[in-house]
């Protein structure tokens, strides 16, 4: 029943916002929406390719470097744009980048939890991380699907060498609001950054995304501490990002297994209203 209600609401808003767009009432100022993906199963690769090709008709895809410059007000964009991000460090996300995005010259940001990468090659430790840290249930410990397995550090370095950005996602995918309450957040933020920079040969790691990314996992104080360590801090709050805007980065989680109009509805702003109150304390234009 819940899925049916969600389908009806998103379809209604999709039609409403599509009409608004056709009537020329959408905001003319260039905006960027940031997409969140995690693992990409083998049967979702085609769906990702189709989605990217369809979105390319109305959106430009930009890199993490371009987004950072846009956010600082140093470059302008010709039309509304998208930035793709992958969270956690799944090997399947690298496969999606290599086989779907790279041929289309699309660069992404990969938010990595070093503790997950360290489980590469050890299925028992990978399973423990998946169930305890990533909270992925119903996985067979004796037969972990390939799309749930982690990258190796060589995979991470390969992504970076190919022009993608590697960002931090805490050491062990901990809920940041809880780490703040326990007084461990700054240590976690710094140790994750230091570890990633060491694995990347000393390259600067300036981007950070909150694990989970919802309001239960982020508090204002944890955001401010994250901002002291990283240049840009990414959430899971839906919304548009504007030129010269400072504060937390808004992102849209998308589900490749859902009807394709779900993603289009999110990008048209169908769910933004539910996050506006939350975002007031995290943004300053």
Which key terms come to mind for this protein?
TIM Barrel, seven-stranded mixed β-sheet, 41% helix, 14% strand
Walk me through the topology:
Blueprint: H1 2-22, E1 31-37, H2 45-55, E2 60-61, H3 64-71, E3 81-88, H4 91-101, E4 108-112, H5 114-117, H6 123-133, H7 153-161, E5 165-168, H8 176-181, H9 185-199, E6 207-209, H10 220-229, E7 232-234, E8 241-242, E9 246-247, E10 251-253, H11 260-267, H12 276-279, E11 283-284
Parallel strand pairs: 1-3, 1-10, 2-3, 3-4, 4-5, 6-7
Antiparallel strand pairs: 1-8, 9-11
Helix pairs in contact: 1-11, 2-4, 9-10
Would you summarize the structure shown here?
The chain has 285 residues and is α/β, with parallel strands linked by helices. The protein has helices at 2-22, 45-55, 64-71, 91-101, 114-117, 123-133, 153-161, 176-181, 185-199, 220-229, 260-267, 276-279, and strands spanning 31-37, 60-61, 81-88, 108-112, 165-168, 207-209, 232-234, 241-242, 246-247, 251-253, 283-284.
How widely separated are the two ends? 40 Å
Q: Determine the CATH superfamily.
A: Glycoside hydrolase/deacetylase
The level-1 CATH class = Alpha Beta
State the helicity in percent bands: 40-55%
Rg over C-alpha atoms, rounded to the nearest angstrom = 18 Å
Overall domain count: 1
**Which oligomeric form is depicted?**
single chain
Q: Which CATH architecture would you pick?
A: Alpha-Beta Barrel
Q: SS-based structural class?
A: alpha/beta
CATH topology: TIM Barrel
Major sheet description: 7 strands, mixed
Number of strand elements: 11
Q: What's the helix count?
A: 12
Overall average residue pLDDT: 89
Q: What sort of overall outline do the alpha carbons produce when their principal axes are compared?
A: globular
Beta-strand content bin? 5-15%
The secondary-structure element order is HEHEHEHEHHHEHHEHEEEEHHE
